[in-house]
Amino acid sequence: MRPYGDTISYGCGANGIHWLALLNRFPEIQAPVTPDECDLDDFYLAIRKLLLSHELPGLGFEFGCALSVSDYGVVGLAIASTRSLSEAITTQLKFLGMVTNTAKVSYQFYQDGNWMVLKVHEVDAIRPLDHFTIESELGAQLRFVKDLLPEARMAKCILSLPYECPTSRESYKKLAGCQVKFRQPDARLQIPYAWADKPLDSADELLAPLLAQRCELIASTMDKRGDWVERVRNLLLTSDSCSKSLIETAEALGVSTHNLRWHLARDNANYKQILLDVRMNLACQCLEGTPLTLQQISYQLGYTYPGNFQLAFKKYFEVPPGIWRSRSTV
Fold this sequence. Notes:
Layout: H1 6-12, H2 17-25, H3 40-53, H4 59-64, H5 73-80, H6 85-94, E1 105-112, E2 115-122, H7 131-148, E3 158-160, H8 169-176, E4 179-181, E5 187-192, H9 208-220, H10 228-238, H11 246-253, H12 257-266, H13 271-289, H14 294-300, H15 306-317, H16 321-328
């Protein structure tokens, strides 16, 4: 489950983490002329060209295991805040469209005897998944389990791949950190079922529903990703805190600050107002749906001082946040 898809590109920048990782390792690759408009197809085109000129078995696993759960922004936080591993995997699959290309990849998650099984397969049977996609998806799942259960012995897991081993089996075992089987009927990761209800050290019953709401909000606007206002909104929503500056946001979206201002002005919007709208929307969700204190909410929204948050809220809604909360509970 990698953030290579264009659905997440507007959260970390279409020339963001996935392009930087590729370009840093292989500087001979040329980035798109207009990186702010590149998408999953551009990335995979670069991968295909790379694999035609280089022998790189296991490259997918390298990319899949490169990012931690925390690198997935609010989706990663929502996953990590759940109570158990099985609940975390279920949450991950629920918001799959935010972090991978659901037009190409689909998952099944089920119990099979003493195993939890994550099976990855193509959406279009006419276009089977390439080795890189399979490995990057399953590699990311392995990293997720390792991050969520750091004490677990990953060697107990089993990876199944539906093709011949392109190099030595030991090199794949070293990359994956577990047993790897080749020439299998499908691509899957088997996780001991005994781990299903293991509690997560990162679990947070207070934040879990709030983060899930944020993910729901982002997912509901993903079909509007051609709108620059929505790109900025999604970036702020997927960030750990809503406190990015215009310069940071422009950099994450792969454009200059001048171009970002121009795009927003064309949509009759400005960055400061979008930031405020996002913060106030999230503030209402926190006040109405969680027992978080005003101080906790202010920090969640990126305010340095709780007083600044309360003044901003009152100016925006003409009602103090405390009164807003009391009215919502009536």
